[in-house]
Design goal:
The complex is a heterodimer. By secondary structure, chain A is α/β, with parallel strands linked by helices. Chain A has 10 helices and 13 strands. Chain A has a 6-stranded mixed sheet with strand order 5-6-7-3-8-9, with helices on both faces. Chain A has a 4-stranded antiparallel sheet with strand order 11-12-10-13. In chain A, strands 2-1-4 form a 3-stranded antiparallel sheet, with helices on one face. In chain A, α4 packs antiparallel against α5. Chain B has 2 domains: about 270 residues, no CATH class; about 250 residues, no CATH class. The mean pLDDT of chain B is about 90. The chains are: A alpha/beta, B mainly alpha. Chains A and B meet through α2, β5 and α3 of A and α15 and α20 of B. Bound molecules: adenosine-5'-diphosphate (ADP) and magnesium ion. Magnesium ion binds next to α1 of chain A.
């Protein structure tokens, strides 16, 4: 498989702020690639460099085989971009914006446009000013998903969507992947990337700290469990159960994190100990970083 | 009431912090304008005799009154502020408008008010803070000017009246803006209402002041806040009570503004947002079409405005003829407009100069949209499509260049049709159109300055406004203030041919066109090589 995006050693500073500090990124053809990182970690900056809007201070690489800074215009014929903070022209309707962006990109798939507008329940006759954040995002998404381009670059596209719409978005993304498109999708929400992406790169403070398939990153997706039990196990017992980590026992209360594939077993086992209360929490990105970079306090 | 105003002092402090350069710099600029020009005029005409014997006699001419308002008396003091009363009142009004809009509709438009509104900020607080700051700015400019004039040794009640003239216009505009920002649902819409109001106020007083005393038209001048500024007659009748009109308008505006505020949603105007077509028309097919479409309001508004302007100037030509063929008169007018030929020619040339500065403002505003769209994030979207930077830049430069050209043609045609219908002494259609077009190179240079700044150093793009303002003031006041010639030469307006009446000089105009081209190219080259997000 060829690489659609491959960049190495990207550096970018804004005055004293170092936004990117030697970032590498490889996205393969036909995959949905998650670009995961907390706020301010450099996702949008990377994307703008990939689009040739910003020039990297240092670093090399290509997007679709082209230099993004020098061949931006040609490159843009083959991609569609949804910015993180979608703004629309205040006096144009959503439908007008979709048509405009489609025409600027050199054409739009009419049938898909109609279907997407319907599925996203988008009112195309409202003016830009009248849309909520989520609806502005839908306008930009419809315009991007309906254009006939091999690469989609989406910067936190679901930040304003409600869960139902997010699911529709994920389904559309899968359909496009099955049709052979490549997508780079940035996010600061782990679960979103987990659902939609084949491979993930995790960025922190302008560097990639981890990159690989979801299976490779499985160790990152542990659920944290906290339970109040009628008869608590000992710490040794708890640690011996399959897939548990970071276990702690305090009287009738137990804490631990558990690998995704062992969650069901754990819940069943806890049930036999008489559950009074149970909370399960997928790890936040910040917790992941804490877990990776600092030893957990005992 | 108190909860409605919760957090207002904090907002006021925030507004002051954001405007701590803009407001003091504007106030100082205005004080320099009034006191500086009075001082230089007084050096030329130190006493009433020299003033009266020299120029004051002609200042009752309707066409000059149309431009600057009535001369209050034939004293040196009145002559010393003759131009700055009206010009300054207009600028003070603009300052009031800008400050109010910045902290109300613009904030709301860009979503920042929502952020604040969810905190402990009362519903009326942003408007209260904005109106307070604007009032402070307007009062400071007026009061300091009055004090400065008195300090020059000018008549004290007259100096106070001068302050009153500016203040009345400024306060009234603050009040009107308080309503305008509630009615319009966008920053640009508010600008349309605000500047439309000021243009109408100016046109009304121009017509009213040049009409005969006692006529209905003359009385209608009292409807215009800019008319009040002239009718205070500083250093003459000294009608200090006119201040009450300004205060009353301010209070009425705030009351109406608050009433509208109570009735509308955050982010909306009073007029509910209309829906539009679900599919885009043909114009929205490329960068040029997009920029043109986004300028639609500007195009329509200014075309109407200049049509009206042409009618007003054309009909005023009738009263110019009242003036005897006095060499002193032509000398004075020449100094005003820097033109040659008949009195009608000079008048037309002077008015075209004024209007072309306004047209340049429209052009600069459009040229600055390149930077505006970069800030808002819209530019990023366009530039992520196969639209090249070069085409995007070119579209944002071409539209203001083309629009200003079109507008000056409209002005020339209307003037050329109306003028000859009013008096046979008016310039012909061809002469009017030619004279109108002859102003364009200077307008283009100013647009090119905005384009170059926006292309190369977007942070400094707003300086294009400063360049426009200084250019205008130098052109207006420079000759009578006897500024050094290198300053005068720095203004593109200085190099325009004296039309109608004079001969068209090709070389200076071509030079201005060349400067335009160079600036546009420099801006474009820089734009191709910098970060655009
Ligand atoms: N135009 C800019 N000027 C100055 N600093 C910037 C600019 N753009 C981004 N930054 C800074 O660079 C860092 C990375 O920002 P960004 O790429 O937007 O992060 P993310 O998209 O991951 O939230 C942040 O510290 C941000 O403040
Ligand atoms: Mg971002």
């Amino acid at each position: 498989m060829t690489d659609v995006i491959s960049v190495f050693g990207l550096h970018k500073a804004f005055g004293n702020t170092v936004a990117l500090d030697g970032l590498d990124l490889t996205v393969r053809e036909g995959e949905v690639h998650g670009f995961l990182g907390p706020n301010g970690s450099g996702k949008s900056t990377t994307i703008r460099i990939l689009l040739g809007l910003l020039r990297a201070d240092r670093g090399t690489g290509t997007v679709l085989g082209r230099d993004p800074w020098r061949e931006a215009t040609e490159l843009h014929r083959s991609l569609a971009y949804v910015p993180g903070d979608v703004v629309l022209w205040p006096t144009l309707t959503g439908g007008e914006v979709i048509d405009l962006l489609g025409r600027l990109r050199g054409g739009i798939d009419e049938a898909r446009r109609r279907r997407l507008v319907q599925r996203f329940e988008l009112d195309e006759t409202k003016k830009g000013k009248a849309y909520s954040k989520g609806n502005r995002q839908k306008v930009a998404l419809v315009a991007a998903l309906a254009s006939d381009v091999p690469l989609l670059v989406l910067d936190e596209p679901t930040a304003g969507l409600d869960p139902l719409m997010e699911e529709i978005f994920q389904a559309e993304l899968m359909a496009l992947r099955d049709a052979g498109r490549t997508t780079l999708l940035s996010s600061h929400i782990l679960s979103e990337v987990e659902k939609a992406c084949d491979r993930v790169s995790i960025v922190r403070a302008g560097r990639i700290v981890d990159s690989g398939s979801l299976a490779d990153l499985r160790h990152l997706s542990r659920t944290r469990v906290h339970a109040l039990l009628r008869s608590a196990p000992t710490l040794a017992e708890l640690e011996a159960w399959p897939g548990t980590h970071d276990a702690r026992v305090d009287g009738a209360e137990v804490w631990c994190s558990v690998d995704a594939e062992h969650l069901g077993d754990l819940v069943a086992t806890l049930g036999s100990h008489g559950v009074e209360t149970l909370t399960c929490q997928p790890p936040t990105l910040e917790e992941l970083f804490l877990a990776r970079y600092q030893p957990q306090p005992a | 009431m108190t909860t409605r105003l919760a957090g207002a002092p904090d907002l006021l402090r925030l507004a002051w912090r954001r405007d701590r350069i803009l407001v003091p710099a504007s106030v100082i600029g205005l004080v320099v304008l009034s006191v500086g020009s009075a001082q230089t005029t007084l050096e030329l005409y130190p006493d009433d005799e020299s003033a009266a014997a020299g120029l004051a006699g002609i200042l009752t001419n309707p066409s000059i009154i149309a431009m600057y308002g009535p001369l209050a008396s034939q004293t040196a003091d009145a002559l010393a502020v003759f131009k700055t009363v009206m010009m300054g009142a207009f600028l003070v009004a603009v300052l009031g408008f800008v400050v109010v809009r910045r902290h109300t509709r613009t904030e709301e438009d860009e979503g920042r008010l929502e952020l604040l509104g969810s905190g402990v900020v009362g519903r009326w607080s942003p408007l209260a803070a904005a109106v307070t700051l604007a009032t402070v700015a307007v009062v400071a400019a007026s009061a300091l000017s009055a004090a400065g004039l008195a300090a020059l040794g000018m008549d004290v009640p007259g100096s106070v009246a001068f302050g009153v003239a500016w203040l009345a216009a400024g306060l009234a505009t603050v009040g009107v803006t308080a309503v305008a920002v509630q009615l319009a649902s966008t920053t640009r819409g508010a600008a349309g209402l605000g500047f439309g109001f000021l243009a109408a106020a100016y046109a009304l007083r121009a017509l009213a002041d040049s009409a005969d005393d006692g006529s209905v038209l003359h009385a209608l001048g009292w409807l215009s806040p800019l008319g009040w500024a002239g009718r205070v007659e500083a250093y003459g009748a000294n009608r200090q009570w006119v201040l009450l009109l300004g205060l009353a308008t301010l209070v009425a505006g705030v009351v109406v503004g608050v009433a509208v505020l109570e009735r509308r949603d955050l982010g909306a105007g009073l007029i509910p947002a209309r829906t539009g077509p679900a599919r885009a028309g043909r114009i929205l097919s490329g960068p040029l079409g997009l920029v043109t479409r986004m300028a639609r309001g500007t195009i329509v508004g200014w075309t109407l405005g200049l049509t009206l302007g042409g009618v007003v100037v054309g009909s005023l030509l009738g009263s110019v003829a009242d003036l005897a063929d006095d060499p002193v008169v032509s000398d004075f007018l020449e100094q005003l407009g820097g033109s040659a030929g008949t009195v009608e020619d000079i008048f037309v040339s002077t008015e075209l100069g004024f209007i072309s500065a306004a047209v340049a403002a429209a052009g600069v505003a459009l040229a600055l949209r390149l930077v505006g769209s970069e800030r808002s994030g819209l530019g990023e979207v366009v530039l992520s499509t196969p639209t090249s930077r070069l085409r995007w830049y070119a579209a944002n430069v071409a539209v203001p260049l083309a629009l200003t050209t079109f507008l000056m043609v409209v002005l020339g045609v209307v003037l050329g049709v109306v003028g000859p219908a009013v008096t046979e002494l008016a310039p012909s259609l061809g002469e009017s159109v030619g004279a109108s077009l002859a102003k364009l190179p200077a307008v283009w240079v100013l647009i090119a300055v905005a384009a170059a700044l926006g292309g190369a150093v977007p942070r400094f793009a707003p300086f294009a406004w400063a360049v426009l303002l200084v250019t205008f003031l130098v052109g207006e006041l420079g000759p009578s203030m006897q500024l050094p010639s290198w300053i005068l030469d720095a203004s593109p307006f200085t190099h325009l041919s004296q039309l109608p009446g004079g001969t068209f000089e090709v070389v200076p105009s071509l030079a201005l066109v060349a400067v335009t081209a160079v600036l546009v190219v420099l801006g474009g080259v820089a734009y191709l090589h910098r970060d655009v997000a």
